[in-house]
Amino acid sequence: MSSLSRDDVAHLAGLARIDLSDAELDKMVGELSVILESVAKVQQAGAEDAPPMSHPMPLTNVTRPDEVRPSLGADAALAMAPASELQRFSVPRILAED
Amino acid sequence: MSTDIIRSSAAEIADALARREVSSVEVTSAHLDRIAAVDGDVHAFLHVDAEGALAAARAVDDRRAAGEELHVMAGVPIAVKDVMATKGLPTTCGSKILEGWIPPYDATLVSRLRAAGMPILGKTNMDEFAMGSSTEHSAYGPTRNPWDLERIPGGSGGGSSAAVAAFEAPLAIGTDTGGSIRQPAAVTGTVGTKPTYGGVSRYGLVALASSLDQAGPCSRTVLDAALLHSVIGGHDPMDSTSIDAPAPPVVEAARRGDVKGMRIGVVKELGGEGYQPGVRARFEESVQLLVDAGAEVVEVSCPSFDFALAAYYLILPSEASSNLAKFDAMRYGLRVLPEGVDDPSAEQVMAATRDAGFGDEVKRRIILGTYALSSGYYDAYYGQAQKVRTLISRDFSAAFDKVDVLVSPTAPTTAFRLGEKLDDPMAMYLNDIATIPANLAGVPGMSLPSGVAEEDGLPTGIQILAPATEDARLYRVGAVLEKLLVDQWGGPLLATAPELTAKGA
């Protein structure tokens, strides 16, 4: 289970939206398998009965009053956008052709 | 004021400023001159803001001249790690995907630096998105260790540690997700503290792993770290994970420096095999000094720490893969169109951009995290790592029932050569073996210099760990040990570092 095939890595890269080149894929298959083998050690820690810990502080539902306060204006928010139009982010098409 | 401003501590500079023996413009200029002279070799900075720093310095000098009551650190310049959002100053996180990005807002801790009147000298180099232990994963080239320019300054905050070690800044901001403040401090002969998780606001800190990240001070002395810690610490309503309490009394603790009757635990699992002889020798001598100063030292076992590295390298990539999804080429940062595709979709643009904009280590960790979170593998990897995290936290609790603080070497080795571990990710990851448990449990930790290893003449560090919110204990113990060691050395350790050759001076 700890070893990954080239197809597995290509699939994961697709899920992560990273367009890896063939050379990158070749290199990463070996590296990831070594890392995975090492981190699989967590399965030998005898932790089956321990509750999972997601966060170091026991915080739940930190809320604040729902009050209007100043925020970034459109110009500031858009200043660093790759492209903008009509005070909005301009993006490539988001739907497929058909 | 001493004739050599740049070699003064931040506390000394603050005192001299308050007594008007020197102006902030003079202090800031001296550091900018030093940066101009040595940073071509060291490469601690990705961006130097001479104009902004001098303007801030002039403003403080004017206010002081007008008789205004100022913050104790007003006029003391500082360098900020390039992972903190700084309004009007580039913030790249060491990544090409954010090249040229200028944030529209300040991180809370940056606002606090500005409010205190601390001129920001510039932004320091780092491993891309703080993923690394050497700064070699910076997209803008590595930082070099001032002790030996062929060696790494630690990472991810190698720019901040090197800036402080090379006297380019008296203070710097670092961030520590698995040791990125403490390990660089250890290998450069400087001081660094990772506060309790939630002790310093993360608002405006570009997140790597949200449940582990913590910003903190980098300095040359324990007192300086405390002074900076107290500027940036304390509750921030803009960060929902911020602890709702004032900053702990760290400055008082650093000034008090007393270990009589304190119980100190040496962590059995963090030492021994895999630790360089010189690192172990200096550590043992430091422990003996603490015994001589009246502390009671016992060995403490934290058996789950053996699984910390594995748990960390599942939890961190998992959180990182999620956090870094925001770099989608739509709202800020790089946008690259895929080659040979007419009218590409947003998804294709995103995938092409992330391939072009992220470096190898970032891609590796995002894909590892994507795997660890996939259905079918989640329980075996991420879920299991979260359970191990509980065991580690329990080990800390049990240890702190017996002792007030824990100690260990900060890093297993001294600074290694640039390139030495670049092609072996697991070897690189092992640098953080002693620092990671604190991040997993959220407890505070400090590294301070323990000497130099006789086999290579390079600095070694000792780590102090305390229970959550008891950051003051780090400074109490650190201050005592620092004083005893400096007395023994006959001066600060950095005074023995080789002189950097000034360029164009």
TrEMBL record, chain A:
<keyword id="KW-0648">Protein biosynthesis</keyword>
<feature type="region of interest" description="Disordered">
    <location>
        <begin position="46"/>
        <end position="65"/>
    </location>
</feature>
<keyword id="KW-0547">Nucleotide-binding</keyword>
<dbReference type="GO" id="GO:0006412">
    <property type="term" value="P:translation"/>
</dbReference>
<dbReference type="GO" id="GO:0050567">
    <property type="term" value="F:glutaminyl-tRNA synthase (glutamine-hydrolyzing) activity"/>
</dbReference>
<comment type="subunit">
    <text>Heterotrimer of A, B and C subunits.</text>
</comment>
<keyword id="KW-0067">ATP-binding</keyword>
<comment type="function">
    <text>Allows the formation of correctly charged Asn-tRNA(Asn) or Gln-tRNA(Gln) through the transamidation of misacylated Asp-tRNA(Asn) or Glu-tRNA(Gln) in organisms which lack either or both of asparaginyl-tRNA or glutaminyl-tRNA synthetases. The reaction takes place in the presence of glutamine and ATP through an activated phospho-Asp-tRNA(Asn) or phospho-Glu-tRNA(Gln).</text>
</comment>
<dbReference type="Pfam" id="PF02686">
    <property type="entry name" value="GatC"/>
</dbReference>
<comment type="similarity">
    <text>Belongs to the GatC family.</text>
</comment>
<dbReference type="InterPro" id="IPR036113">
    <property type="entry name" value="Asp/Glu-ADT_sf_sub_c"/>
</dbReference>
<dbReference type="GO" id="GO:0050566">
    <property type="term" value="F:asparaginyl-tRNA synthase (glutamine-hydrolyzing) activity"/>
</dbReference>
<dbReference type="GO" id="GO:0006450">
    <property type="term" value="P:regulation of translational fidelity"/>
</dbReference>
<dbReference type="GO" id="GO:0005524">
    <property type="term" value="F:ATP binding"/>
</dbReference>
<dbReference type="InterPro" id="IPR003837">
    <property type="entry name" value="GatC"/>
</dbReference>
<dbReference type="GO" id="GO:0070681">
    <property type="term" value="P:glutaminyl-tRNAGln biosynthesis via transamidation"/>
</dbReference>
<protein>
    <recommendedName>
        <fullName>Aspartyl/glutamyl-tRNA(Asn/Gln) amidotransferase subunit C</fullName>
        <ecNumber>6.3.5.-</ecNumber>
    </recommendedName>
</protein>
<keyword id="KW-0436">Ligase</keyword>
<dbReference type="GO" id="GO:0016740">
    <property type="term" value="F:transferase activity"/>
</dbReference>
<keyword id="KW-0808">Transferase</keyword>
From TrEMBL, chain B:
<comment type="similarity">
    <text>Belongs to the amidase family. GatA subfamily.</text>
</comment>
<dbReference type="InterPro" id="IPR023631">
    <property type="entry name" value="Amidase_dom"/>
</dbReference>
<comment type="subunit">
    <text>Heterotrimer of A, B and C subunits.</text>
</comment>
<dbReference type="GO" id="GO:0050567">
    <property type="term" value="F:glutaminyl-tRNA synthase (glutamine-hydrolyzing) activity"/>
</dbReference>
<keyword id="KW-0436">Ligase</keyword>
<protein>
    <recommendedName>
        <fullName>Glutamyl-tRNA(Gln) amidotransferase subunit A</fullName>
        <ecNumber>6.3.5.7</ecNumber>
    </recommendedName>
</protein>
<keyword id="KW-0808">Transferase</keyword>
<feature type="active site" description="Acyl-ester intermediate">
    <location>
        <position position="180"/>
    </location>
</feature>
<keyword id="KW-0648">Protein biosynthesis</keyword>
<dbReference type="InterPro" id="IPR000120">
    <property type="entry name" value="Amidase"/>
</dbReference>
<feature type="active site" description="Charge relay system">
    <location>
        <position position="156"/>
    </location>
</feature>
<dbReference type="GO" id="GO:0030956">
    <property type="term" value="C:glutamyl-tRNA(Gln) amidotransferase complex"/>
</dbReference>
<comment type="function">
    <text>Allows the formation of correctly charged Gln-tRNA(Gln) through the transamidation of misacylated Glu-tRNA(Gln) in organisms which lack glutaminyl-tRNA synthetase. The reaction takes place in the presence of glutamine and ATP through an activated gamma-phospho-Glu-tRNA(Gln).</text>
</comment>
<dbReference type="InterPro" id="IPR004412">
    <property type="entry name" value="GatA"/>
</dbReference>
<feature type="active site" description="Charge relay system">
    <location>
        <position position="81"/>
    </location>
</feature>
<dbReference type="GO" id="GO:0016740">
    <property type="term" value="F:transferase activity"/>
</dbReference>
<keyword id="KW-0067">ATP-binding</keyword>
<dbReference type="GO" id="GO:0005524">
    <property type="term" value="F:ATP binding"/>
</dbReference>
<dbReference type="InterPro" id="IPR036928">
    <property type="entry name" value="AS_sf"/>
</dbReference>
<keyword id="KW-0547">Nucleotide-binding</keyword>
<dbReference type="GO" id="GO:0006412">
    <property type="term" value="P:translation"/>
</dbReference>
<dbReference type="InterPro" id="IPR020556">
    <property type="entry name" value="Amidase_CS"/>
</dbReference>
